[in-house]
Structure formats: C-alpha cells, structure tokens
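call fold(seq) -> tokens
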Amino acid sequence: MAFVSGRIPPRRRWEHAALAGEVVLIGVLYYLVPLEGTGPAWQLWLRWAALSVGLCLIALLVVRAARLQAREDPAALPLRPPILLAACGIALFALADHGVALTRPGEFTGLETRTDALYFALSTLATIGYGDIHAQGQWARALLIAQMLFNAGVIAAAVRLVAVRLRARELPGGD
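ret:
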C-alpha cells in the first residue's frame, strides 16, 4: 500500500488508533491490579510467580516475533505485538517496583504511588535516572538489576523489531 502525499491510509490510521487504545488499556489495567493491603504470604508469592511467568512469557514472545521476522517480510508484519509486549513489560516492572515499595518500606526512596512506580520504570528504561526516586535497599536493587537486564535484552529487542518493520515499510516496494 503506497502512501499518497504523505497521508496515512485509513486502514493504517485505524490500526494506529487501535494500538493506542490497547496501550491505554494496559495502563488502565496497571492501575486496577490489586496490590495494596497485606494479605497472607501465599498472595505475595503468587504475585511474584505471576510477575515471573509474565516476564518469561514476554521474553518468549519477543524471541518468537524475532524468529518470524527473520523468515517473513518485515514490512508485512504488524507493529502491534512488539509494542504491546514492551508496554506489558514496563507495566509489570512498575507493578513489581510498587509492590516492593509497599511490602518492604525503605527499599525505595521517593516511590510512594503507582504513578511514581510507572515513572520510575520508564525513567529506568530510558536510562534517564533523575535521582528523585532511587533504590535504597537490597531487594529494590536486585529487582532493578533484573529490570535493567530485561530492558537491555527483551525491551530493546522489541524496539528493534518495530524499527526494522517501520524501515521496511518505508523502502520502495514496502507496504
């Protein structure tokens, strides 16, 4: 599908709007997941298990998307999966950061709300690190080591998949 005078085709516009809606939905779900309140120890372990499974699933899906992209024409592949996987990874780590701040007071300095946790997860991903929120304790630092490794490997791979697909679409003969 060729672009006429730099305009985005209606089908593509719809896909972009749907993707934006899905990313917003991930954000809404991030704020709705119950974390507050202390419960039995099994609930805490269940949350950490769910986080671990979620991150492993994201990593596997990014690897699968990379393998598919190696076999298929990148211009024909949708942008949606790697973008949604990256958004889910960020949300999961923000939940983990907030969970540690709630269950182990003093582990983070300046992290008090979910918005703080999301801001911190994004600033960690972008390697900005303003210093207003930082890991104080060993649990928080261990979580951030895992987060940085995940960001450097999985999220970076997802971003690369999107970049290759966008570049392929811009080339002559691309979608």
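The radius of gyration is 18 Å.
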